[in-house]
Amino acid sequence: MRSLYVLVTVCLLLAIFGPMLASHDPTAINIPNRLRPPGGEWLLGTDALGRDIFSRLLHGARWSLGLAFVVSLLGLIIGTTVGLIAAQGGRVADWIAMRTTDTFLAFPELIAAVVIAGILGANTGSLIFALTVTGWMRYARIARGIGLSVGNRGYVVQARLAGLSPLAIARWHYLPSLLPSLTVVWTGMLARAILGISTLGFLGFGVQPPMPEWGTMLLDARVHMRSAPLQMIWPGLCVVISVLAINLAGDALRDALAEQDAKT
Amino acid sequence: MLTVDNISVRRGVSTTLEEVSFSLEPGRTLAVVGESGAGKSTLISAILGLVRCSAGGVSWNGAPVSRCRPALVMQEPRAAFNPRLSLRRSVMEPVVAQNLVFEPERLAMLCRALEVQPDLLERRPDQVSIGQAQRMGILRALIAAPPLVLFDEPLSALDAVTQKHTARLIADMQAQEGFAALIVTHDLGYAAAFADDIAALREGRIEEMGTAQAFIAAPQTDYGRTLRDAAFALGALERVA
Amino acid sequence: MIGVFTGFLLRAIVVLIGAALATFALLWHAPGDPALAIAEARYGQNVSKEVLDFIRSEAGFDDGFWTAFWAWLSPLMLGDFGQSSVNGREVWPDVVTAMSYTFPLALVSLALGLAVSVPLALIATRKPGSWLDRGAVALASVGVAIPAFWLGLLLILLFAVQLGWLPAMGAETSAHSILPAMTLGFGVAASLTRIIRSGILEARGQPFLPAFTRRGVARRDIARDHVAPHAVVPVVTVLGLELAFLLEGLVVVEVIFARPGLGSFLVNAIFARDFPKVQAVVILAAVIFVVVNLAIDLIYRSLDPRVSGRDA
Hints:
heterotrimer; A: mainly alpha; B: alpha/beta; 9 strands; ATP hydrolysis activity (chain B); nucleotide-binding (chain B); ATP-binding (chain B); ABC_transporter-like_ATP-bd (chain B)
C-alpha cells in the first residue's frame, strides 16, 4: 500500500517537475548525434532526429498525464451535471438526459474518439474534445443512480420544501454523497484517458510532432524498430507504469470506501 | 385556509386517494387517522405537491400551496437532516433558501419553547437523541413562520414519555404561532387529545369527518366505531373519554 | 419479458437514430471544404470551380443539414451505405471484405482470452492470497495497463524482428493472425481474469454458504449450484465493456499489423476524408455494439431474478 502511494506521488511529481530535470531541450534537433545508444551524455540515447529521449519522456509526462487529467476532469464535470439533471429534473429531463447518454455510449469510446479527432483535424484541441465527448457517460450514469436514491431522502425533500434552489440542493445535498463513487470512477477514466491519448497519438490523430507525447514518440520509434529497438521500450513503459499506478490507486480507494461503508 | 378539493391520486393501476375533500383554517388542527396503507402519507405528498393529483386540486387561500412555503415534520427525525451538516445549517435552511432576514431572537425563542439547548445546534444529527432530533425537526419547520405545517406521524419514532412531551410541545407551539396543522397519525388517542377535527381515512377515501369530541363520543360509521373501539381496547382513549 | 424486450428494442432504435445523427453532425461540421477534399482525392490538385460545384450538388452539400441528413439516412435504413466519395465504389462490398478479416480475428482473440482467463481465475481462487493468486492478480493488473499498440509492437519486435519466427505484416496466411490474436487475447485475458476472480470470491462470500458446508453439502455441489451461477452475473455485466475493449483493440492491432480489416478501413477512410466510408464503419460499429449490449441486458435479466422488475 505504501509503495503505491510512493508510485502515484512519483508520477505526479514527474508530471509537474519532470521537465526541470530534463538534461536537454526535448525538441532540439541534433542530426550528427542521431540514434545514439543509451549511456553517456544521453541517458536513454537519442531518437532519429538526435533528440534526447530521456528529456522527451520527462516532457512527455506533461502531455500524456496532464492532458489525461484535463480530459477526465472535464468528463467528470459534464457527466455529473448531466446525471444530476436527470436525477433532479423530473421525468422528461431524465428521459432526454439518459437517452443522450445511451446515444454516446452506442460507440466504443476509443473508436469514437479516433473518428472525432481524425475528422476534426489532428491537434491538441480536437484531441481534448474527442476524449471528453466520449468520456463523460459513466459519470452521468453513476451520478444519476446515486442521485435518484438521494432524492428520496428526507433532507432533500425538506430542502425542496424550504425552497432551496436546485443548484444549492445539488451542491449541499447531492454532491457530498456522490463524491466518493465519482472519485473511484474518475481514477478509472484517468487511466483510460492516458491510454486513449497515447493510442490516438500513435495512430497520428493526437498530439502532433515535435511535441514529445508518449504515443507520438512510439509512432516515431516504430520506423527504426530494427536499428534502435530500445527506443520503443521507454515510452510504452511510461504509459504502463502510470496507468498501473492509477489503476492500483483506484482499487485501493474503492476498497477503502467499501470498508467505510461497511462500518456505517 | 387550506382547501383540498376532491383530489384523487393514482399510482400505476391502483388508486391511493379518491375524491378527498376538506378544508383547514389557520389555528386549527386536523388529525387524519387510519390504518397503514390507507393513503395518509400520500395525502401529505399530494398537499405538498410531491405527487401529482390525477383529479382535483389543492390550494392555500386560492393560490398554489407551495407559494405559502408549507413545512413538514417527518416521521423519522434524523432522516430529515443531512448527516454531513450541522443541525444549525439544516435548521437555518428555510431562512437561507427564502432569503429571509435572520432573527436571532426567533431562533432563541423557538429553542426555549421547544426545550432545545442552543449548543446542540452545533452537533450533527447522529450526535443527538431521537427526541432531540424531532424537536429540532419541529424547530426547523417553524423557523420561517409558515402558515401551514404538516406532521407525518410525528410521534411514532419516539418512546412513550417523549411522545407525550412532544405532543404537548406541538400543541403549545400551535397555540402560540397560530398555524394550520394537519397531523397524520395512526394513534386515535393522540388525535382525540390534541386535534380539533378528526378525519378517518380508509382505502383512500374519507370515511368519516367531524369534531374530535363528536368522533369519539358517537362515530357515525362502522369504520369510525372500529377505530374507536380498537383505541379503547388498547387503553389509548381513557384519558379523553 | 416481452414488454421488457419491446421497451429495450425501442430504446435501441432511439439510440441508433441518435448515433446516426451524431455521426452525421460531426462530418457535417468537419473543418475544411469536404468537396475540395473529395475533388483532390479524385482528380489531384488544381480542381476547377465547376468540378467543386458538381461534387457539392452530387453529395447534397447545398441542401442544408436536415435535408442532407434525411437523404443519407433513408437509404441507410434500407441497408444502402452509398458510394465512396473518393473512388465512387460501393461502400458495402468493401465493408464486407474488411469484416471477413476482422470478425475471425475478434472471435479467435476472445476464445484465446477465455481459454487463459477462466482456468487462471479458477486456479487463483483456490487459495485466495497465495502466491499463485497474487501472481495472477499482478499479471492481470499489468495486463490491463498495457496499451494494445505497444504490446503489438513488442511482439513484432520479439517474434518477427529478433527471432524471425512469425510474419508481422499483412493477413495472407493464418500464421499472420497469430501475433494479432496474441495481442488482443492478452488484453481480454487480463481484464477477464480480474473480473472472474472477484466474481468467484464474491459468490463464495454469500452469507448462507457456511451453513451448507456445516450440514455436509459437498464442496463440488456448492460450487456448481451456488458459486458458479452467482459468479457469472458480474462477468455478464461487463461483457459489453469487454466488447468495446476488443473493438478498440482491433482498430489499433489492424493498423500495426497492416491487416485489411475494418479498423484499417476506418483509419484509412479518415485520412482520405472519405466520409461515406467513415459513416458506414461508425454506424456498423454502433449497430453491433447496441445489439450485443441489448442481448447482454436480456441475458443479465434472465440470470439475476432481482433485477427483472427494475428499470435499468
